[in-house]
Amino acid sequence: MFAGVTPIQAALVSAAFLFAALPGCSTSGSFGDARAIAAWAAQRDFAETVVPAGKFRLAAFVRKPPVTSDILTVYIEGDGAAWATPYHPPRDPTPARPVSLALAAADPAPAVVYLGRPCQYLTAAALQDCDSAYWTERRFAPEVIAAYDEAITRQKSTLAARRLRLIGYSGGGVLATLLAARRDDVDVLVTVAAPLSLREWAAWHEASPLAGSLDPAELSENVRLPRSVHFAGGRDKTVPPAIVEDHIRRKGGRIEIIPGFDHDCCWARDWAMLLGRVTVQENAK
pTM of the prediction? Predict the structure, then answer.
């Protein structure tokens, strides 16, 4: 626990670490607003849409295949905009550098859907009705997981796919893992710089756990995850590899530690190569 702060403040401090804007070399750059992000995505054949799911309206960018694809690859964004201070979350969680969108753009798969997080990419008016708890302590709440489950099922049906690949960056990797635990149509789970053991992650930052959020490392013993590959940066101080390894000890999967990478750099730049490792292993099954 941070000295002199309440448990709620400490939880916010722990959240701030994951939102921190770390220097890096993401090929997505810094866009500044949602319109610029949409324009960048459109140039890469992604159509902007909104997916109603539960109490949320999730922003999505969809790359449709010219013909029906059996497998749909879904990317889930990280936790979003940087915090002004450890006690002041952003008013708008839309990421200035959507790393997961850059990963999706580098993926050669024919059918790809990118999903933003709750309250991201909203107009100013709509944002006023979105509870900030969903980009702070309740970002992995049960109702959030249920909403993504609904959204993915809807996109899968729309694109006439049968199977899924789930890929998530940072907090998006936490969501992807929790989703893979409740679905039976996921061929492979891939996470990038994801704090997959939230309890260990909070302890690492000497902060309280996120109240109301589900922890992938605490999944029931009866839960079996699909084949899983977890990428971690050798220089990541936000989510050190040991936190990912803690999850793997509990729930299985394989970790790939990439030397020289931190939480932001250089996942998007090298994603085609890194994803190729997953694909080669998948084809070798």
Answer: 0.89
